[in-house]
Inverse folding.
């Protein structure tokens, strides 16, 4: 209809020009025709730019404001497999204001995580992730850039260097010996191997990084508490959060995830200070 109006105005203009009846073409016609032509050009340009700028993969339609959120079940892998059978190996859907793109083929995974890894390196962090990493200032949650490259360089050079690991072999062996000695002293007594193994790993890491470890009868109990706090942090990091889907609601902390993450962070920070 819009283009038909422009076409009609153009026909009127052209007929008047051909008949040389310039007096019949008043100022209102000229202004209206100019505005219509300009609007048509701008509309066409905007539509073209929109198509070029939002070249998104296909995907299911969602509801206003909440997107596809109500239609996702608990078995996400099954839901994604069903969507892939309909829309192909790459598809999109919206969760609130967040755009989600899912890839399901090995070739696309290779393209994303290896061939184009720097392009897809950054993504929105969760509320719990930002709190756990003190604002995204660690190697796991930091955005790709100069700071992340510097942290990675230090991490690889100072912690994963083969020479350094070989030099610290005695520290790791000492921690394993202490754990074996603890088991030997507890003959005929139940021993929680899980907590003891966790304590051994933590002590080995802390011994190599800051030269300290926790010992004594309370060590296993402390390790159990530390393990429980770490497991709780992992649970909070993986728990769906309304604040992540609707950032405007983050200030209300509806599910209490921000509060709980800060609480766990304080517990873990206390253990780190104890080692120091």
């Amino acid at each position: 209809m819009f283009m038909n109006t422009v076409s009609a105005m153009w026909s009127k203009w052209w007929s008047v020009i051909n008949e040389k009846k310039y007096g019949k073409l008043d100022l209102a016609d000229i202004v209206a025709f100019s505005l219509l032509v300009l609007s048509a050009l701008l509309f066409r340009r905007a539509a073209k730019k929109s198509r070029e700028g939002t070249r998104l993969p296909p995907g299911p339609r969602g509801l206003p404001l909440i997107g596809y959120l109500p239609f996702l079940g608990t078995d996400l892998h099954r839901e994604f497999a069903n969507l892939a059978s309909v829309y192909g190996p790459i598809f999109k859907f919206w969760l609130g204001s967040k755009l989600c793109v899912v890839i399901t083929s090995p070739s696309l995974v290779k393209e994303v995580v290896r061939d184009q890894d720097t392009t897809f390196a950054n993504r929105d962090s969760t509320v719990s992730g930002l709190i756990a990493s003190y604002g995204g200032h660690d190697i796991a949650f930091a955005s790709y850039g100069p700071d992340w490259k510097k942290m990675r360089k230090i991490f690889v050079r100072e912690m994963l260097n083969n020479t350094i690991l070989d030099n610290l072999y005695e520290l790791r062996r000492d921690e394993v010996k202490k754990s074996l000695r603890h088991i030997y002293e507890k003959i005929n007594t139940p021993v929680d191997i899980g907590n003891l193994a966790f304590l051994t790993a933590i002590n080995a890491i802390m011994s190599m990084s800051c030269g300290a470890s926790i010992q004594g009868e309370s060590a296993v109990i402390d390790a159990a508490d530390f393990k429980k706090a770490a497991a709780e942090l992992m649970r909070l990091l993986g728990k769906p959060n309304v604040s992540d889907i609707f950032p405007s609601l983050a200030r209300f902390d509806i599910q209490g995830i921000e509060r709980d993450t800060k609480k766990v962070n304080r517990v873990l920070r206390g253990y780190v200070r104890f080692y120091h």
